[in-house]
Design brief:
Layout lengths: L1 H23 L3 H27 L3 H28 L9 H11 L3 H29 L3 H28 L3
Helix pairs in contact: 2-3, 2-4, 2-5, 3-6, 5-6
């Protein structure tokens, strides 16, 4: 009995060491990145859902539908990596993103569309830069894989929204 208990104790200690070593493979920067990426994806989905209800422009509606689908999928991809890193993800956008949503929510018509498109241009260019920077900065293979995939998706979004903005004369 003592041998079995000792073996179990050794196994538990070894397994705890493995978990701790695995969590240490994620830098503080990686962990912060995961939290911010989750907030960004939640905000993208929330604003896109509002846009689906608000816009009359079919091209903007199609873009918003893509944002809901793609950013929901990106958020789902972050979850297992965050779990591995021992990071508790936020369940709402950042305070700054909530303020942007509140501003957008009171607009209508062309004013709404232009504001949404302008925000999406800014957000997607910034998010693409963040993905590329984190990809270079991290040594973690899970984060590298995540940022490579996300950068590809966001690059496609950036191209789409830049095209819509160009047609609308939005800078």
């Amino acid at each position: 009995m003592k041998i079995a208990t000792a073996a179990l104790t050794v196994a538990l200690i070894a397994s705890a060491g493995t978990v701790a070593a695995h969590a240490q493979a994620f830098s503080d920067q990686d962990k912060t990145f995961l939290k911010h990426a989750a907030e960004d994806n939640i905000a993208e989905v929330k604003m896109a859902e509002l846009t689906e209800k608000t816009t009359k422009n079919p091209e903007i509606r199609m873009f918003a539908e893509k944002m809901v689908t793609d950013h929901t999928a990106l958020l789902e991809g972050i979850k297992p990596v965050a779990m591995k890193a021992g990071v508790k993800l936020p369940t709402s956008p950042s305070i700054a993103e909530q303020a942007e949503y509140a501003k957008l929510k009171v607009l209508t018509g062309e004013t709404y569309d232009k504001s949404y498109v302008k925000g999406m241009v800014k957000d997607h260019h910034e998010d693409l830069d963040k993905m590329k920077q984190e990809n270079v900065a991290t040594n973690n293979p899970d984060i590298k894989k995540l940022t490579t995939h996300a950068a590809d998706v966001i690059a496609g979004h950036t191209k789409m929204i830049d095209g819509i903005a160009g047609k609308m004369g939005v800078q």
